[in-house]
Write a structure and sequence with these properties.
Elements (H helix, E strand, L loop, with lengths): L2 E5 L7 H10 L4 E7 L18 E5 L2 E4 L3 H12 L6 E8 L11 H11 L4 E6 L11 H14 L5 E7 L7 E4 L5 E4 L2 E5 L5 E5 L3 E4 L6 H6 L2 E8 L5 H10 L6 H4 L6
Parallel strand pairs: 1-2, 1-5, 2-4, 5-6, 6-7, 8-13
Antiparallel strand pairs: 3-4, 7-13, 9-12, 10-11
Helix pairs in contact: 1-4, 2-3
């Protein structure tokens, strides 16, 4: 029997994680380990300044007073006797495309699984609440089954975004695009007139590239993007070495006897 770990960043009580569990149960034994509260936009944070408490809510279902990354680390090291066959994070309420990927706790949980060499998917539904998950079940199940059968490339996770609504035009394999938010920091005043700042909202500036996750979702397609753990700009190595000549900075080069 296949063993599947699921988690999220919206918290254990999110209907999205219950929908994900229902979608994946036909594929094997599903164990849920999720934060006890909403951890949206917390990225890949680990809790290192206090101990963490794990609560068993029912058989194979746990909540943790920590981040999505904490949940994966605790699950893989303390709950599973051996690594699971698959990790799926979601279903996130709202898209994780473009620049949002950097902030996403949903994607970061899948990154943590990938770091442990567990094939990992991050799944999100686009649109606005209230969210309906019925149309996501078959898509998620088939993508998970494909991953269980064939695996994923080394150091690579699958980032899946599914359009909300009954009509889906198909599936596209995409690259990460750009989605920068204009006016994303709001200035508000409290009753005493003191100024505060609220991060969130604004108007998204969308990537026009036709091969991007942003374009696919905007046109009603499921977006599936391979996200790699290596953040190195390999083309930039020669630029730093040759064009900027960083290795020849005098104050550094003097420490190298061979220079």
């Amino acid at each position: 029997m296949k063993h599947i770990l699921i988690t999220n960043d919206d918290g254990i009580h999110s209907p999205g994680i219950m929908a994900l569990k229902e979608a994946l149960m036909p594929l094997g034994k599903v164990i849920v380990v999720a934060p006890d509260r909403d951890n949206s936009a917390i990225s890949h944070a680990l809790t290192m300044h206090r101990p963490l408490k794990l609560h068993a809510l029912q058989k194979d279902m746990y909540c943790l007073d920590g981040t999505p990354t904490d949940c994966v680390a605790i699950a893989l090291n303390k709950i599973f006797k051996k690594l699971p066959d698959l990790l799926v994070s979601g279903i996130n309420n709202g898209a994780n495309i473009g620049d949002d990927i950097s902030y996403s706790g949903t994607v970061s949980a899948a990154i943590e699984g990938t770091m442990y060499a567990v094939p990992s998917l991050a799944v999100s539904i686009t649109g606005e609440p209230p969210f309906s998950y019925e149309n996501t079940y078959e898509i998620i199940r088939e993508l998970a089954a494909k991953t269980l059968e064939n695996g994923l490339p080394a150091n690579t996770l699958m980032n899946v975004n599914i359009p909300a609504g009954a009509h889906i035009n198909g599936l596209r394999v995409t690259r990460q695009g750009r989605r920068i938010w204009k006016q994303s920091v709001q200035e508000v005043a409290d009753p005493r007139g003191r100024i505060h700042y609220w991060i969130g909202g604004g108007v998204p500036l969308l990537d026009a590239g036709r091969d991007t996750d942003v374009h696919a979702i905007s046109n009603g397609y499921v977006s599936v993007s391979p996200i790699h753990l290596d953040l190195t700009n390999h083309e930039g190595i020669s630029y730093f070495r040759d064009d900027l000549d960083l290795e020849a900075i005098p104050s550094i080069a003097k420490f190298n006897p061979s220079s």
